Amino acid sequence: MLNAYGAGWRMCDVKAYSMAELPKEGWWTPEQLGLVQDRSRQWILRSFEPSDSVAFLLAGQTIARKRELGEAVSPETSVTPGGWDHEHCSLCWQKISQLPGDKGCGYTDGRDWVCRPCYERFIVPRLGKP
Ligand SMILES: [Zn+2]
Question: Which of 119, 113, 124 is nearest to 51 (CA)?
């Protein structure tokens, strides 16, 4: 079984897959399987750049998330400039950030991120297929 980074994976293997053999992991959630099967997603290789995060209290706990572009902030919400400092690969949870030791770039469709090895292993073989 291949690990998340596809040990032994070679780009020339891509064309060898038929529809029934398209690579996937047995432990994926329906959302992860849907992500690789959704042909409408446009994946672009990008360098991750930190953005602002917002934090707010919910049921006594502080919840932080990425601040969307142009998002208005309520008085109960605190903004941390550059506080959203990483994303995770949606398929293997590899950290994508500019922090030392992390992968600095990956593929994104503007919503989710996928690391380069997962993109090459799971999405490239599906490109151009119905
Ligand atoms: Zn990955």
Answer: 113
